[in-house]
């Protein structure tokens, strides 16, 4: 089984076992896939791990849901899927406002509306654990795009005049400056400039 088949099957089964008992109906034509979200897919903080597009964004006129390949924990993946399917129910009209919060509470998602989670020892966690035991784990290993990548530091050097004027420039530009004849662009004086 591939990832998309797993997500499609999960959507159909969760409709019957979770959404219908809560009085919620996921659009039958929603498409789900493992794909990178359009923004912040590899952000170091507040990474986007799921996204739902409204019907107007799709030439097919359907909701498109993407689950990020940067996650592979089955419980987390199903929790993100549930979150995005809630967006599909109202065609993304309410964002994370009260109608979304009401639906997430009905389904048992915890956390902030913008970063929901399946809380351990919750009814939803138990439900999803039984689901995984019966239908198997998410058939995917996470994409490690940022593991081992050193965070880029600035290549610009900070230069400050005694008058308080600060600017940044590259090492190449600093090497070209004749410091003995240099005057501050702000105060015009030949004060000492500090390279920080």
Question: How is this structure best summarized?
Answer:
By secondary structure, the protein is of the alpha+beta class. The chain contains five helices and eight strands; from the N terminus they run αβββααββαββαβ.
Structure commentary:
The chain is of the alpha+beta class and 196 residues long. The protein folds into two domains: 3-135, 2-Layer Sandwich (Zincin-like); 156-195, no CATH class. The protein has five helices and eight strands; from the N terminus they run H-E-E-E-H-H-E-E-H-E-E-H-E. It has helices spanning 3-19, 74-89, 98-107, 123-135, 171-176; strands spanning 31-34, 50-53, 64-67, 110-112, 115-117, 156-161, 166-170, 193-195. Strands 1-3-2 form a three-stranded mixed sheet. A three-stranded antiparallel sheet has the order 7-6-8. Strand 6 (156-161) and strand 7 form a beta hairpin. Helix 1 crosses helix 2 (74-89) and helix 2 (74-89) packs across helix 3 (98-107). The longest helix has 17 residues, at 3-19. The model has no long low-confidence stretch (mean pLDDT 88).
């Amino acid at each position: 089984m591939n990832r998309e088949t797993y997500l499609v099957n999960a959507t159909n089964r969760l409709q019957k076992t979770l959404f219908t008992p809560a009085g919620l109906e996921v659009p039958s034509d929603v498409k789900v896939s493992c794909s990178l979200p359009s923004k912040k897919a590899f952000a170091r903080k507040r990474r986007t791990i799921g996204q739902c597009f409204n019907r107007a964004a799709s030439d097919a006129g359907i909701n498109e849901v993407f689950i990020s390949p940067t996650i592979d924990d089955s419980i987390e993946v199903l929790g993100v899927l549930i979150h995005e399917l809630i967006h599909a129910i109202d065609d993304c009209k309410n964002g994370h406002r009260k109608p979304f919060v009401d639906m997430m509470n009905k389904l048992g998602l915890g956390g902030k509306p913008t970063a929901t989670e399946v809380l351990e020892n919750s009814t939803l966690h138990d439900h999803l654990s039984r689901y995984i035991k019966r239908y198997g784990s998410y058939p995917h290993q996470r994409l490690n795009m940022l593991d081992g990548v050193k965070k880029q530091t600035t290549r610009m050097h900070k230069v400050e005049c005694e008058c308080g004027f600060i600017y940044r420039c590259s090492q190449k530009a600093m090497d070209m400056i004749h410091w003995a004849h240099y005057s501050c662009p702000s105060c015009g004086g030949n004060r000492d400039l500090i390279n920080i």
